[in-house]
Each structure stands twice: as C-alpha cells, then as structure tokens.
C-alpha cells in the first residue's frame, strides 16, 4: 500500500472515531435532559403534573432538548466535514504539526488536477509520524466510549424510573 492510501486510511479511522464521539456526546446530552425532565415531572405535586399547561411546557422542553442534541451532532459533523476535517484532525493530532492540514490541501488540489510533486513526500512524512502514534493512541476508545456508556447508563436509569 502506498503512503497516500495508508495516510488516508489513518485519517479515515480518526474521523470515524471523532464521529462516534460527537454522536455519543449528543446522545448523552439528550438522555440527561430526558432524565432531568422525567424527574422534574415526577417531583411536581400531583395537581401541577396533571395541569395541561405544565405538561405542555415539559413536552416543549423535551422537544427543545432533542432539537438541541440533534443540532449539536449536526454542527460537529459539519465541522468535521469542512475541508475534509482538517481543523478537527489537527486538533486531535497535534504531533502532526500541520502536516495533515497541508496534506489535505494538497490532496484537494491534486483532485482538481493541479498535482503536487511533494504530495507523496508529505504523505510519507505524515505517515511516519502516524506510525509513532497509532489510531488507538491518538484517539483512544475511552474518549468516545465514556460518553456512550454514560448515555447507556442514564437510559437504563430512565427505564428503571419509568417502570
């Protein structure tokens, strides 16, 4: 496999983990809001809980929480897709020292027909740095698994409350 393909594979793996992170954080925010609203509804005195106005406010708050979580996920994925995720990849991979951003810029130019003779060298250099920092070290599984696990725990707690 050539250095370009190896580096692209490495960057795709990091992007995939970043997507998981954004989905996990959004899911955690949503289930936390749902749990908070459920507890709030349960703590309200019975006469207020049955009032149509109170229930309408709680439903609107739930819809706003869902919309907010969806907007958060959409926004983070939009940032990740902008310029092939160069900004977020650079923030996640500081050891690359700007190589990823430069590589992605040169890659876009090459895709438009303005091939750069330095693209292969740049990919080789960035791949060499990537070899010293594997995907699981650069973007550890626990970074996205903790919010996902937290969302699952809160969801189980919410199910327990409902039952």
Secondary structure elements and pairings:
Layout: H1 3-43, H2 46-49, H3 52-81, H4 86-92, H5 99-111, H6 119-132, H7 135-138, H8 141-162
Work out the radius of gyration: 22 Å
What is the H/E string? HHHHHHHH
Mean pLDDT, rounded to whole units? 88
* Molecular shape: elongated
The low-pLDDT segments are none
Total helical segments: 8
Indicate the structural class.
mainly alpha
Strand content: under 5%
Helix amount: over 70%
Strands, count: 0
Measure the end-to-end span. Answer: 54 Å
Largest sheet: none
Key structural traits:
single chain; 163 residues; mainly alpha; 8 helices; 83% helix; elongated
What would you say this structure looks like, in words?
By secondary structure, the protein is mainly α. The protein has helices at 3-43, 46-49, 52-81, 86-92, 99-111, 119-132, 135-138, 141-162.
Task: Please outline what is shown here.
This protein has helices at 3-43, 46-49, 52-81, 86-92, 99-111, 119-132, 135-138, 141-162. The protein has 163 residues and is mostly helical.
